[in-house]
Design a protein that fits this description.
single chain; mainly alpha; Tetracycline Repressor, domain 2; about 75% helix
Length: about 170
């Protein structure tokens, strides 16, 4: 799995093959991979589900803050923290997301819906300024995904500070 994740993260989906994964894993042939996975699609689906489960668990464990503003900050910090510890996993996840046959449970939609609801709560509590929560959720998630895609060239401590600051400025939080 780790060789598959690293290969997808480095080469992207289209260039990833059993041969490339076997080479990264130090295997002399692709036989061990094809023993466990019928084809590339099955492997991609397993990688996708694995990363998604670990990511969701990691972020969820850091939520439950007392206010919408604190919850939004915790969400952003948890996303960057997971990225800091699992950059290749997140990069592979984003690169294969469109190709995974297994459903992600509508994670993109559920992330958006949950984030928009949190932003509405913050507005109702007077913690955030007036804005369209659905649009703001799109912007916040796009910034998060941008950090993932560019994270190899960025200082993640600086990135975390700037991401949190940008969102706080944008939300008036």
């Amino acid at each position: 799995m780790s060789a598959a994740i690293a290969t997808i993260a480095e080469l992207d989906y289209a260039e990833t093959s059993f041969k490339a994964i076997a080479a990264r894993a130090g295997l002399s042939s692709t036989g061990l991979i094809s023993y466990h996975f019928r084809n590339k699609q099955e492997l991609v689906d397993v990688v996708f589900a694995d990363v998604l489960e670990r990511f969701q668990g990691f972020v969820t464990a850091r939520l439950g803050q007392p206010s919408p503003r604190d919850e939004l900050r915790a969400f952003l910090v948890a996303n960057v923290a997971f990225l800091r510890e699992h950059r290749a996993d997140m990069l592979a996840f984003l690169r294969i997301r469109a190709h995974a046959a297994v459903t992600d449970g509508g994670i993109a939609d559920s992330d958006h819906v949950a984030l928009a609801a949190l932003l509405r709560q913050g507005q109702d509590a007077g913690e955030f300024r007036a804005f369209d929560p659905d649009v703001m959720a799109v912007f916040i998630l796009a910034m998060r995904n941008g950090v993932v895609l560019r994270s190899g060239a960025l200082d993640l401590d600086v990135c975390e500070r700037e991401l949190v600051a940008a969102v706080e400025l944008a939300t008036g939080g």
